[in-house]
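Practice record 12: protein with zinc ion.
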Amino acid sequence: MLPGIRADAVVGAVVGGVPVYVTATEPHYDGDCARPGTHDCAATAVQVWDAATGEPVRTVDDAGGRHLVVTVVDGRTVAVTCDWSDTPKLIDLESGVVLGGLAGHEDLVQGLATVELQYGPAVVSVAWDQTIRVVHLTTGEARVFDAGERLDSVAVVVVGGRAVAAVAGKVAGLWDLELGVRIGSLPATAKVRKIATWPDGGALVGLLSWQDDVEVWDVLERGLICRMTGHRMSQDIVSFPPLHGHPR
Ligand SMILES: [Zn+2]
C-alpha cells in the first residue's frame, strides 16, 4: 500500500526489475487545498515507490505535473511528465536524471500518451496550440500534426495493428499515428475533456465529458459500448481498473 501522499498522477512501471508506482505532483495554491499541512503544496516532484512495500525508491525534484506516462527506451524505464507548461520533461527513472525537455508546443500541453511505432517507443502530446506531436524517443525525431482545434486530452489504442490516437477536441477525433492523418471520430454525446485507456482494454477508450458523463467506445467498430450518467466525477481524474468481459 502506498503511504498517504499527494499525487496528481500515478502509473505502474518496472524500475530496476522491481514493480513500482510512479507518482507526479505539481504545485497548487495552499489556500484552496483540502489537506494543507499534510504535505508541501508547492512541491514539484516525480517519485518512485516500491509496489510491494510502499517504500520510496527515488525522488526526482523539479519535475512533475498532472500529466505522466512511462515507457521503456533501450531497456531503461523513462517517464514523461508535464505540468502547466508547453514543454514535457523526459526523466530516466533508473537514475533519477531529468534528461531534458520535449520542446516544440507553443501552448499548454493537455495530454500525454505513449505508443510503440515502427521505429520504437514514442510520446504523443496534445496541446492548446492545436497540434499533436509525436516524439520518437530513440531518435529524437518529432512529427507534428495540425488538428486545427484546441485539444484537451489524448489516448492511444492499437486497432488492427495500427496505432490510433483519440484526441479530445470539439469531437473525439481519431488519428493514425504512423500516417499522421485523421481517420474519423467518435460521436460522443457531449464534448470530451478526458480520454483514457486501460490494460487489456483492446480498442476501447473511456471518454469523460464536460458534463461528467462517462462513455466507453470501441474505436474499431466506432460503437458505443456503455454510458454512465449522473456521476459527480472528480474535476480532472478518470481512471479505469482492468475491465474483464465488457458488455457486448
Ligand atoms: Zn496542498
